């Protein structure tokens, strides 16, 4: 290798490792701050429970004095003497002091306990202030100014805190940061800024350009002349007009037709009725009746079960390899490395060891060259990588799509997404907390995307339980099989107005199973339209002016997603940034309300459509059920 090439590789390595190191540091920062807040809250609640008896006793003593004060028969001139008969002045004074000491205000966030963790923060704060170069959007400029102020006073024992930017100090923090004498508490101010820093990073109001995961997603959108030249191609690919007026006109027509159709069919729709509660009209949708299994179906099912042979997993994998050649997609990391003999046997063993979570030891055979420990370890390190797994899975999905039975199930245009939760027993940055699913531990969620041909065409692992609506679009945009699903079905937790809007812009149909479909708000574009029995339900009006003003940016986001210049997860995190969404996010949400209303009207009007959604979700959940079984019970020795 030449000297120039060696230096080039070294520089590239350093560049990549810098981004990885920054990503890991910011991941750890997020976990640390969240853990500090959570542990402070736990400590505060524990302390409150411990002191509750003392607080109750003091409150009861105070109530004695208050009863006298409220007694209309007690003369004002004798008020004190009457109180002292009930409780002494010393006891009353102690009770007041105890209540002031133990009682917490309604907006208490356990910041007192958080301030007690100052030493923990000082372990990493100086290095963080010195090392990471944060940048900001307009929404994050105040946080950045506060952070730079902290950097400017680092190492100074008694800094001039009166010059600290106070725009970042919210109502919950102000009584801790600014004392009664007007002086600013350095510790409280630091914790306040640190908490908001992490929140702003999550919304990408703050970002680090050198990072891979924490950079500015907006910078990856199509920009300037590139966007100008790409816009016509994007509009053609997405079948959208470059101006909003024709699209809004078409949507209004679709919405009017959907309302009229649903209203006219409502008298003949026994599963749906309109109820009025406290002057507010809502839809009530009955549950779907269970479809009874016919005797002929049960007989056929028993026959098919009897015909299916019982095979070991290794045997099944090797047979599928013989039919599809999917293991050919596992190539050596060096790519030019010659393939060794019986490689498929080794790959099969490694895949089973990983998939069944049994490790390599049960599959090692010292007398079989393809199954020695050294061979299996070498294959695991050099052939099993995310990109080779994706390519192998794509070949399997493509092969199944050609089977007539799979084609009878569906054409691959419909898919569903479902999450599978796992507790992670080891300490890792890639796991997140959620007491509902993981108890006191941490875990991950594996999102599986299943087609109507019973194939898993994409999978995504996220820390903890990231909002489903942030990941549902990823499976459609980033999957690498020949399938082209146009409709995605999820559970209730997977939807938001912004997701509906992005799906519509990209030409997809979003069809979540809504637990509260009857309570969902219906929207209208035409304020003067009369929708008959549904007119009172369609009270809210879409803000078309927001859509018109931001149409080009909406096209730019959709085009960037379609062309892959930015990932769906990055964009959704930026758009869905909590209580203060951007103007662009609001515009996409307004468009999503139209798409959501069209979907809801179809959902209400068509029982077969509701059943089709349920059927597809059951397909995805069936794979989860089979996953929860113990596949290692069916693993015997490889030949």
From TrEMBL:
Coiled-coil region list: none
Keyword list, A-Z: DNA recombination, DNA-binding, Transposition
Gene Ontology MF: a single term: DNA binding
InterPro entries reported for this sequence: Tn3-like_transpos, Tn3_Tnp_DDE_dom
UniProt-listed GO biological process terms: DNA transposition
Ranges for domain Tn3 transposase DDE: 316-622
NCBIfam families for this protein: transpos_Tn3 (NF033527)
Protein family (similarity comment): Belongs to the transposase 7 family.
Name of this chain's protein: DDE transposase
Native species: Hydrococcus rivularis NIES-593
């Amino acid at each position: 290798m030449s000297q120039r090439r060696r230096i080039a590789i070294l520089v590239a390595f350093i560049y990549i490792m810098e981004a990885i190191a920054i990503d890991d540091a910011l991941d750890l920062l997020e976990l640390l701050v969240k853990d500090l807040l959570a542990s402070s809250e736990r400590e505060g609640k524990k302390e409150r429970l411990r002191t509750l008896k003392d607080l109750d006793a003091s409150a009861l003593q105070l109530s004695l004095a208050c009863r006298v004060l409220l007694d209309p028969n007690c003369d004002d001139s004798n008020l004190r003497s009457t109180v002292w008969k009930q409780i002494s002045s010393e006891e009353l004074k102690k009770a007041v002091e105890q209540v002031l000491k133990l009682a917490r205000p309604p907006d208490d966030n356990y910041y007192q306990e958080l301030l007690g963790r100052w030493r923990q923060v000082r372990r990493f704060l100086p290095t963080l202030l010195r090392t990471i170069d944060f940048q900001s959007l307009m929404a994050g400029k105040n946080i950045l100014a506060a952070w730079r102020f902290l950097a400017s006073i680092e190492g100074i024992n008694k800094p001039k805190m009166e010059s600290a930017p106070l725009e970042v100090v919210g109502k919950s923090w102000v009584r801790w940061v600014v004392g009664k004498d007007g002086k600013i508490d350095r510790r409280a101010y630091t914790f306040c800024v640190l908490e908001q820093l992490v929140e702003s990073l999550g919304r990408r109001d703050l970002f680090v350009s050198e990072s891979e995961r924490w950079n500015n997603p907006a910078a990856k959108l199509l920009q300037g002349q590139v966007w100008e030249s790409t816009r016509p191609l994007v509009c053609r690919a997405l079948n959208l007009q470059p101006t909003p007026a024709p699209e809004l006109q078409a949507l209004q027509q679709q919405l009017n037709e959907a309302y009229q159709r649903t209203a006219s069919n409502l008298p003949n729709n026994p599963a749906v009725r309109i109820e009025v509660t406290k002057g507010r009209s809502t839809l009530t949708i009955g549950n779907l009746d269970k479809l009874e299994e016919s005797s002929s179906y049960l007989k056929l099912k028993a026959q098919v079960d009897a015909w299916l042979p019982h095979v070991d997993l290794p045997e099944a994998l090797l047979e599928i390899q013989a039919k599809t050649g999917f293991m050919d997609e596992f190539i050596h990391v060096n790519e030019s490395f010659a393939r060794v003999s019986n490689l498929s046997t080794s790959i099969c063993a490694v895949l089973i060891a990983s998939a069944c979570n049994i490790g390599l030891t049960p599959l090692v055979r010292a007398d079989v060259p393809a199954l020695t420990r050294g061979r299996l370890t070498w294959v695991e390190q050099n052939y099993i990588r995310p990109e080779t797994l994706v390519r192998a899975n794509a070949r399997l999905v493509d092969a199944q799509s050609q089977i007539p039975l799979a084609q009878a199930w569906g054409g691959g245009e419909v898919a569903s997404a479902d999450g599978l939760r796992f507790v992670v027993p080891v300490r890792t940055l890639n796991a997140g907390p959620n007491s509902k699913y993981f108890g006191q531990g941490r875990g991950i969620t594996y999102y599986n995307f299943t087609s109507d041909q019973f194939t898993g065409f994409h999978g995504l692992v996220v820390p903890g339980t990231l909002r489903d609506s942030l990941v549902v679009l990823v499976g459609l945009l980033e999957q690498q099989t020949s399938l082209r699903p146009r409709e995605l079905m999820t559970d209730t937790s997977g939807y938001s107005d912004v997701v509906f809007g992005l799906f519509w812009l990209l030409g997809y149909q979003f069809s979540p199973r809504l637990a509260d479909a009857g309570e969902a708000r219906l929207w209208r574009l035409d304020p003067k339209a009369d929708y008959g029995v549904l007119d009172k339900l369609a009270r809210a009006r879409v803000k078309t002016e927001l859509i018109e003003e931001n149409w080009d940016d909406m096209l730019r986001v959709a085009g960037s997603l379609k062309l892959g210049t930015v990932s769906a997860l990055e964009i959704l995190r930026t758009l869905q940034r909590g209580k203060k969404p951007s103007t662009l996010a609001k515009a996409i949400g307004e468009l999503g309300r139209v798409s959501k209303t069209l979907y809801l009207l179809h959902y209400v009007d068509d029982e077969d459509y509701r059943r089709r959604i349920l059927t597809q979700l059951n397909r995805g959940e069936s794979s989860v059920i089979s996953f929860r079984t113990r596949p290692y019970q069916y693993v015997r020795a490889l030949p």
